[in-house]
Design a protein that fits this description.
By secondary structure, the chain is an alpha/beta fold. The strands form 7 sheets. It has a 7-stranded mixed beta sheet with strand order 1-11-18-17-14-16-15, sandwiched between helices. A 7-stranded parallel beta sheet has the order 6-7-5-8-9-4-10, with helices on both faces. Strands 26, 27, 28, 29, 30 and 31 form a 6-stranded antiparallel beta sheet that branches. Helix 2 crosses helix 3 (about 75-85), helix 8 (about 180-200) runs parallel beside helix 16 and helix 20 crosses helix 21 (about 680-690).
């Protein structure tokens, strides 16, 4: 690494020392496999690879949690290849979160050139004419959860021979299987276990994960089976210099900083101009395109030829071309979304620039791990965005560099997720009492609900699906609800979809909708027809809805006392959102153009929440409701801003409400709830880690240099009340009161 290349990038917070590999003797493998490994330079294995191999061969389910580029894929490939070479009938299924990763791994498996191993990808791009042949001949099948849900399991009779002989199911990058998506995949994996059993199969699982807080718990929650954890990393790692950079403050009072896109482009262009092979990661597709465009402008015509953007939405051919150019060194740099985070091989890179928090600390390490695979020291840069979580990590880099605090959560008790999968399972084969083994303790209750909805019927002691369609096709794995709204332009061309529950706030008449950098204005929203009509407009404005929220406590499941007579609860709630107005704001200067009324149906959501209640307001001193309400509101925003660090979720997955007097308990109350029907464990994690969450939130707010509150501490980009009222000083007073640092009632 050119030392001049890292000068003035930011504060170097750590230099991570290289680590020697722990290499062990190769086990007694099939001669063809041993020869192939030796030919690829693997005459010995890392210690964790051998441990995983031995445990899998002993019949255990294994989860491997080691660093990026530690050879985790060999932990399932070696035993799967061994099985295939021992008998042509033996099968393995490799599950990847994306089609791109499956395609990349197909090439790597082909490089082994094992005559008895016949790999194939099976996804939505697989020609129908080839599918029957793949079922018959392929003994290593690479697919994704979506295709497993709609293409394999509903047609399991055609897959009978494959499932009967299925020995290993590998789930790669399991740490991304969390929240709604992870809960859906958990149900799909249990349906897969059930289908294999129906045909006489009994496969073992091998999961690979980044180093999260709870890899074994996650593996067991995903599959419903006991697991052995392998996390003693035996791989080597090179020296890595870690730099944290904060965009300069432009307006101290407002807390305004130079934009993340501009800052990312500056750093990326500077590194590339010095010949440093670099990948920059952006949080969104739009962000990736903007950073690339700004960097290209700085580099000029010749320099721009050596860089490229990369994201989902490009054709497979375009992505393969970019990957190949980066691997060969024809490109010096790429600006990517997380599409390049998950293991696609792009060769040896010198530097990684992480532009903003990617959703988890595990993802930061995944991104940084794309560089430093050679002998030379690597550079890892983290550029903080202006929101509270980014600023917290900039101030507390040890939360990235030190102990893992994140826990990935899934649930099999959410009826909105489990219910549709029970219908799909019943369509695959009638359900009976023994299926509780697969679907968990909520199985009987949710199955009864499906019977009451007349989607299941009892027949001969079993439950059968009574619909005429294929229910798996109605399941969206990335949503807790299968109901979506289709967005079409004025010519009738579909340009996108959105969850029906979010349509009133995101697709109301007059709303601005962005698609591939193009701005549209919603002209009509028909919730009965599940359709929104949009027309293309100049990208001059954006819109903010005004949302009135009510939260009703349905059941308090747990409660514990906090300091000063405050209390913390967790349980089930019902939220009601009414979108009453929207604001139109000019992009160029943030000038408000106007406020317009709306008349839309309420959106009702039953979910999970934690809530804080304070003692009644003291009679001797009554603060103004506006200042007290601003304290509660700011405290709510602050905690929501940092909760993703604990729960591995996105800020948009969380909702909240604060009120000086709640209509049920007549007490000052703050609610923080899961933004999905039934809940997915986000608020539960907040309840369990509340004291740490409150302390960290207090630290963010007190250290923020702004005067009255800004996006880096208490303002929220999705606030339905347009960030009114908010009190920064009041939030500090509130959090200190809840933590017992003061006994003075907030704002008094």
């Amino acid at each position: 690494m050119n030392r001049r290349a890292v000068e003035n990038l930011g504060e170097t917070v750590a230099t991570l020392a290289p680590r020697e590999a722990t290499l062990v003797t190769m086990p007694d493998l099939h001669p063809d496999l041993a020869k192939a490994l030796h030919g690829m330079g693997a005459s010995r294995l890392y210690s964790h690879q051998l441990e995983a191999y031995e445990r899998v061969r002993a019949g255990e389910n294994v989860v491997v949690a080691t660093a990026t580029a530690s050879g985790k894929s060999l932990c399932y490939k070696i035993p799967a290849f061994e099985n295939a070479l021992e008998s042509a009938a033996n099968r393995a299924l490799f599950l990847y979160p994306t089609k791109a990763l499956a395609q990349d791994q197909l090439g790597k498996i082909g490089a082994f050139k094992l005559r008895g191993v016949h790999p194939a990808t099976y996804d939505g791009d697989t020609p129908r004419a080839l599918r029957a042949e793949i079922r018959r001949k392929s003994n290593i099948l690479l697919t994704n959860p979506d295709m497993l849900n709609v293409g394999v399991l509903p047609n399991h009779e055609a897959w009978a021979d494959f499932l009967r002989n299925l020995k290993i199911i590998a789930v790669d990058e399991a740490h991304v299987l969390r929240g709604v998506f992870g809960s859906h995949v958990a149900a799909v994996l249990r349906r897969l276990r059930r289908a294999a059993m129906l045909h006489g199969g009994d496969p073992k699982f091998v999961l690979t994960s980044a180093t999260i807080a709870n890899p074994q718990e996650l593996a067991e929650s995903l599959t419903g089976l006991p697991f052995t954890l392998v996390d003693n990393d035996g791989a080597s790692s090179g020296e890595r210099r870690v730099v944290f950079r904060n965009p300069p403050l432009l307006d101290k009072e407002k807390g305004e900083r130079r934009s993340l896109s501009t800052e990312g482009a500056l750093v990326f262009a500077d590194l590339v101009s010095r010949g440093v092979r670099t990948i920059a990661f952006a949080r969104t597709r739009k962000g990736a395109e903007l950073i690339y465009r700004y960097a290209a402008d700085r580099l000029g015509v010749d320099g721009a030829r050596r860089i490229s953007p990369y994201r989902a939405g490009y054709t497979a051919r375009e992505r393969r071309e970019i990957e190949g150019k980066l691997f060969r060194g024809d490109l010096l740099g790429v600006v990517s979304t997380n599409a390049l985070e998950l293991g696609v091989d792009v060769g040896a890179l010198d530097a990684v620039v992480c532009c903003g928090y990617p959703g988890s600390v595990a993802s930061i390490w995944q991104q940084w791990g794309r560089a430093g695979r050679g002998k030379d020291p690597a550079l890892a840069v983290y550029i903080a965005g202006r929101d509270s979580l980014d600023q917290y990590l900039f101030e507390n880099p040890q939360r990235v560099l030190g102990r893992r605090v994140e826990a990935a959560r899934v649930t099999m008790e959410n009826p909105y997720i489990l219910g549709p999968h029970l219908l799909a399972a019943a369509h695959e084969a009638p359900l009976d009492a023994d299926d509780e083994e697969y679907f968990g303790p909520a199985y009987r209750t949710v199955a009864k609900q499906m019977m009451e909805a007349r989607a299941l019927a009892a027949s001969g002691g079993r439950l059968v699906y009574v619909g005429g369609d294929t229910p798996a096709r109605d399941i969206s794995l990335r949503s807790a609800s299968s109901k979506t709204v289709m967005i079409a332009d004025s010519d009738g061309e579909v340009i996108g979809t959105a969850e029906a529950s979010r349509a009133p706030s995101e697709l109301h008449p007059g709303a601005t909708y962005l698609h591939r950098g193009t701005a549209y204005e919603i002209e009509e929203l028909d919730l009965r027809a599940s359709q929104a009509i949009a027309r293309r407009v100049p990208n001059r404005y954006y819109t903010k809805p005004r949302v009135e929220t009510d939260v009703e406590v349905l059941e308090e499941v747990e409660r514990r006392e906090l300091a000063n007579g405050a209390a913390l609860s967790w349980g089930r709630v019902r939220t009601t959102d009414a979108v009453t107005y929207y604001k139109k704001v000019q992009v160029a200067d943030e000038r408000e153009i106007g406020v317009y009324p709306l008349d839309l149906p309420d959106v009702v959501l039953e979910t999970q929440a934690f809530w804080i209640t304070l003692p009644p307001l003291p009679k001797e001193a009554r603060p103004s409701f506006e200042s007290f309400g601003g304290a509660l509101h700011a405290g709510e925003h602050g905690m929501i801003g940092l909760l993703p660090l604990f729960a591995m979720c996105d800020r948009a997955d969380i909702g909240g409400l604060s009120t000086p007097v709640h209509r049920q308990n007549r007490l000052p109350t703050i609610f923080v709830y899961d933004g999905y029907p039934g809940g997915v464990g986000i608020s539960r994690r907040g309840y369990d880690a509340f004291e740490s969450l409150a302390r960290d939130t207090l630290g963010v707010i007190t250290r923020c240099p702004c005067e009255r509150g800004c996006p880096a501490c208490i303002q929220s980009p999705k606030c339905g009340n347009w960030n009114e009222p908010l009190s920064k000083d009041g939030a500090v007073s509130l959090l200190r009161y809840l933590l017992g640092q003061t006994s003075r009632y907030p704002t008094l």
